[in-house]
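At this stage, I wrote out one protein's amino acid sequence and its backbone structure tokens, and that material follows here:
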Amino acid sequence: MRFRTTVLENDGSTAQQDLESADEQSLHVQLHRQGRTLLRVKALESQVDGTAAEQVSLSQRQLLLLTQALYEALDAGVPLLTTLRAVAEQEGDERIVDLLQDMGQRVEAGQQLSDALDAYPRTFPPVYCALVRAGEQSGSLPRVLASILDYLEWRMDIGSTIRQAMIYPLVVGAAGYGLVLFMLSFVVPRLGSVLTTMGGDLPRASRILIDCSGVVADHVLAIVVATVLAVVGAVFAMRTHRVRTAASSVLASLPVARSVVSVLSIAQFCRTFGVLLQAGLTMPHALELGAASVASPAFRGRVLKARERILGGTRLIDATVETELFPPVALSMVKVGEEAGRLPATFERLGRLYDREVKAAVKRALGLLEPAVTVVLGLIVGGVAVLVVTTIYSAMKGIGR
């Protein structure tokens, strides 16, 4: 693959060159051996060729199981090509079978496993491909696959924690929406027809409620269909990177969710960065991939700023202090780890520390969110109920006169 690069030469000057390399990590290593530093890089051609037009999208669990099978076979000493064929034979999903067969053909044709993975960017994320390439280059692919397994399990665990935290407010909100829709489409229109027959003046709020319920009752089917389509559209939209980024930005601005997003971003980065360093990737490349794994755009921007400072010759601890990347406790651990030459182990510990912090932050946020959702729902449903009772009372009062 061809890259347009800006390189810091031995004499301190910079030069722009077009260089060939398998990927950015290999380019970093190649220039480092020459005593040169890669400052900027831009791919001049796509890594995906035309034969990979049909992309396979796997769930996190499917990717985990596939990685587990590859790890177990390779760790037992089974050759890679035999491993791919064996895993394909025991796989029940035709999409994965076709994927493994194509990968086997690529490996048999002389490609490395990482090159075969690069042909399926929707299946294997950049972090996954970079780790596999680092494992191939260092001759420790089974160990790296074990690290990938831990990383994928961690992502599933964090995702499960977030989803469980959202169940209660979503269920309560859906129940409240359904209850209000039922009252406006069924209860209030019948009450309105009775009151109209009885005659008498009604309060303005009551007349507005009856008019709105009439509109809802006439279009209730369209409202239900539109609601279902909106929910389905939101689910599919959240699978796109742009919408997820926008949602993360919105959540980061909300008082209750701000702390959760902040701690989750640190946990995502520390875990990913530690695994990448442990696999042998260079720090600039590990920072770039670590930034891509973070959901928060603000935190991702700070990581990339730290990367630019490191490319300019700044130490990691100084770059993280300047960009306010971590809280004081984490900065102290990073400083000690960098001075001792144990950054991979340091970020692994930070990852475990912030795993617990994420769960604690989610629990605190949920403790605040549950009563807030209950109060809001009570106000909405109670407001409609009060209007209904007030309407009945006003009508009965008019009859009494």
Observations:
- The chain has three domains: 2-43, 54-153, 164-401.
- The longest helix spans residues 141-198.
